[in-house]
């Protein structure tokens, strides 16, 4: 499929041919959901923890004698039935990470790219570079496109001036092509790829 190639001045400078194998797949929400859940699970710290009876500070003395009180027998004031006692089946420190097959991860990335193309939210620019690291100047250029939420993906190396100029622009993310991922693509409304990014993504995902 062909897509117009634009410049950062919002002018058409040609056309680019996109591979149907990468940008023309049917949108499968189940694959996208699996990839997003896998990514977010890896991010979780897993440092949540409640105290077991061995962690609760307090006396180890038996609260009262075993028999003759008419109450249920008790062995510790640190037991979960007492205020300030332990918690039963609470969360423990652990990793939430789980596996996702490589071919599913690859398919999910291609599906995410295809979904943006299908929605008309994919823009290809000739290059993502700036002569000066000036946020105001670059924000003015990007403002002509009317993007409210955008992810920019460049080639293997991001232009340093462009990176510094975009750092303070809200609702804008910038990634090199090797950092392209399903979650970031889906969380932003518009996906902008440089010509170099398209070439490297197609070579990587075909």
UniProtKB/TrEMBL annotation:
Compositional bias segments (type: Polar residues)? 68-78
Q: Which GO BP annotation is one of this protein's?
A: translation
In Pfam terms, one family for this protein is Ribosomal_L4
Q: Which domain of life is it from?
A: Bacteria
| GO-annotated molecular function | rRNA binding; structural constituent of ribosome
Tell me yes or no: is Ribosomal protein among this UniProt entry's keywords: yes
The protein's matches in SUPFAM superfamilies, at most eight in alphabetical order, are given as: Ribosomal protein L4
Region span, Disordered: 44-78
Q: Which GO CC terms are listed, alphabetically?
A: ribonucleoprotein complex; ribosome
Q: Does the keyword Repeat apply?
A: no
Enumerate the UniProt keywords alphabetically: Ribonucleoprotein, Ribosomal protein, RNA-binding, rRNA-binding
Alphabetical list of InterPro entries matching this protein? Ribosomal_uL4 (IPR002136), Ribosomal_uL4-like (IPR013005), Ribosomal_uL4_dom_sf (IPR023574)
State the family named in the UniProt similarity comment for this chain: Belongs to the universal ribosomal protein uL4 family.
- Matching PANTHER family, A to Z? 50S RIBOSOMAL PROTEIN L4, LARGE RIBOSOMAL SUBUNIT PROTEIN UL4M
What the protein does comes down to:
One of the primary rRNA binding proteins, this protein initially binds near the 5'-end of the 23S rRNA. It is important during the early stages of 50S assembly. It makes multiple contacts with different domains of the 23S rRNA in the assembled 50S subunit and ribosome. Forms part of the polypeptide exit tunnel.
* Known partners and oligomeric status: Part of the 50S ribosomal subunit.
Protein name, as recorded: Large ribosomal subunit protein uL4
The organism named in the record is Hypericibacter adhaerens
